[in-house]
Structures are given as structure tokens and as C-alpha cells.
Amino acid sequence: MGNLMIVQNTTLKPTASLTQYPRLYFFFKHAEFGQAVRHLLETEITITNKSAEEELKQITLEDCDMLITDTLDILKAVRANITLTDLPVMVVLSPSESQAQVQALDSGANDVAVMPIAADLLKARIRRMVKTKQRSEEQHQVITFFKAAYEKKDRFLQIVTHDLKNPVNNVRLAHYYLQGEINESPANKEALDTIEMAVHTMNDLINDFLDTAALEKGKTQLNLETLVMEDLIWEIVSRYSETANVKNITLLMGETEGEILADPNRFMQVMSNLVSNAIKFSPNDRFVTISSVIEAGQVRLMVGDEGPGIPAHEQGALFEPFSKLSPRPTNGESSTGLGLSIVKELVLLHKGKVGVDSAENNGCTFWVEMPLYQPHLEAIAV
Q: Which of the chain's ends, N or C, has fewer CB atoms near its CB within 10 Å?
């Protein structure tokens, strides 16, 4: 490629949109281009006897914001290792080389300048390209920061869940043993009930952490089956009747229409979270209604309660992890703050929708929409 004229670390002045001096490297085969750049950018030129290959090896992305050259060989050498985003390159051409503009862009140039060019225009184009690179670097730093934070959080969750599992299992076994060994006095029964509740709370917390981590990593697998909503609702009512009875809450079944294609375990997890939440946030002596209807080719599952409702300004954060809202459990029940975010992710994984209809002090109805499973249409599609 021969010996080249090089302009290093020019003093192109910052502007309001470009807050620091850009660090520029220029490689010129033609001396007149170097002199023109010196004049246009009002900077000093230094001459090097090193070859282009030697100079290119010395350039680092930390030292250089942009490269300007008048030869495609330099451009191709740079693009062999460095992307358009990491190092912008402007190719300067003479009027007789204007037909080479397309070739320059195809070879990886970010911009092409045909000489002669007005100083203000050249400076503006340089600033734009440098600003784009600097923004890209800032975004990369932000991404790197959040990636590191995510990895730390993930390691923390792994450690916590691993270290908690064995002690919780030991407490469960001790609770089971004590039930048969101590007398059933009111005080003992209350103590055992407290232990049992604590074990359930810790189990819920561990499982929610594990589910959240798996969903965030995209490691949750679905085994889809045809599910009949009537069967699911009967099962969920049976499963939560005892829990509801503690607060004298009645679980009601409304309409139970429709079939869906879903993972039975994961969809039951969705329903369990919604029903347990409805019980948890409802006062004693109320009703929780579970139903499903078919609307416009969708099956809508609804879980309605007679609790305090959710203020409109808080509903946007309802499905976010660890969101703290004003409604609180009515009987001292625990809440991990992850249940509804897990519901949302599982429903989205099934290509469904989830939401809530609520008015403050007037209860709320959580709903999940899933495509109606229609076997005859599936057969036609096949």
C-alpha cells in the first residue's frame, strides 16, 4: 500500500451535540488530499515513513473515533477486522473517481466525500459519524453493565435457592415427625401450623425464584396438550377449597366453556397463582368466581374477587417482578411479589394475553385469553 501521509488527533472543535474532540486518523496516498484536509479542518499534518500496514496495527478503537482515507485498500484492510459501528470510515475521492462511490460503500465505507467539499459540510459529516460511534460505545457500556448485573443476580438466585432447599426440607421433615410425637394442645397446634405456613412460604419463594430464572433464560419448555376448561376449573376449585375455607371464602364456578392447547402443568400454575391471589387479597366471607367463556375465537379465563381492587395508577406495574402495590393480603398471608410476573411470562410463552379489569374498592377480575382449540380446523390445516 506504500507510505502514506497521516493526520493524527486533529483538533476539530466540539459542538453542542459533540461534547469532546474527536480522535481522527487520516491515511492519504495523494498529498494534495492531505493538504486539503489540513486546510479544511485547520489542523497540523505529520508525515510518517511507516507503511500503512504498520500504522494500521497501531490503531486501537480506544485511540480512534474515525478513519478517513483516499484508498479502498485501507478500507478493505480495516473492514477485515473492524465493523462499521466500531470504527466509522470515510473515503475521500477526487471528481474523476466519483464512479467509485458505490464500490467504496459496498466495501464498508460509512460515508464518501468527493473533493472539493465545503469545510462546514465535511466537519458536519465527521461530527455525525463520530457522534454515532460515541453513542454506540455508550450503549455498549450500558449493555455490558446490565449484563454483568443480570449475571450477578442469577448467581445470587442460584446460591440462595440451593442453600435454602435443604434447610426447608429438613424443617418439613421435622414438622411431619413432631405432628405424631407431641400432644394436640391448642398451643402446640398453633406452633405446628406456624411452622407449616413458614415452610409453604419458603417453598413458594424458592419455586418462584427458580421459575423466574428459567423464564428469563428462555429455558421453560412447554408440553402442549388439549385442555378442557371445565376440567381445569373443577380441579382448581377442589385444590383451593380448603385454603378458601380458612377465610370463609366461597369459590364459585361460572360458565366453563372452551378447550385450549397448553402445557397442563404450566397452565395450572397460571390458574393457581390467580386463584391464590384472589383468596389472599379478599376479605373474609366473600366470593371468588372462576369462569371461562368463548369470545371471537378466544377462550377467556376469568378469576374475579370482591377485594379492595387496584387503583388505576398502579395497574401498569401489576405484572412486574417485586412490584409493591397498595392492596395487601387481608389475613397476614405472604407474597413473594413474583406470582403475577410469572403468570404474565407463562401466558406470553403460550402466545396468550393477560390483563385485569378493576376499580378501586370494587374488586378485580384477572383474565387470560388463549386461542380456542378447534380440532376440525387443525385437521383442515394439516
A: C
